[in-house]
């Protein structure tokens, strides 16, 4: 019960004891045993999900640059050249 109080607080411990007393009564006992309280505590805690490390293997990978088809690169160069000829003073590369 000290673990329940430490990890989940006094209210959770009260709930465990209350449910433990109810279960013990169902089983014909006057008081809940340590095993009954432990079982109720585990049931109330639910499944435990382990913490993930702050950096997973996937996040450590550097993002790959997007692949651009050669034709698109050539079109972009041609468009830049056209912009330079059409607008010589206002052209700025993007």
Concise account of the structure shown:
The protein has about 90 residues and is mostly helical. About 60% of the residues lie in helices and about 0% in strands.
* Main pleated-sheet profile: none
Which regions are unreliable across 5 or more consecutive residues at pLDDT < 50? none
Q: Estimate the mean pLDDT confidence.
A: 77
How many helices?
A: 5
Compute the CA-based radius of gyration: 34 Å
What is the helical fraction, as a range of percent?
Answer: 55-70%
Total strand segments: 0
General form:
rod-shaped
Strand content: under 5%
Distance between the termini: 66 Å
Structural class: mainly alpha
Compressed to H and E, one letter per element, the order equals: HHHHH
Structure description:
α1 (2-8) crosses α2 and α2 (10-26) packs across α3 (34-45). It contains 5 helices and no strands. It has 94 residues and is mainly alpha-helical. 61% of the residues lie in helices and 0% in strands.
What is the strand and helix layout of this fold?
Elements: H1 2-8, H2 10-26, H3 34-45, H4 57-60, H5 70-86
What labels would you give this structure?
single chain, about 90 residues, mainly alpha, 5 helices, rod-shaped
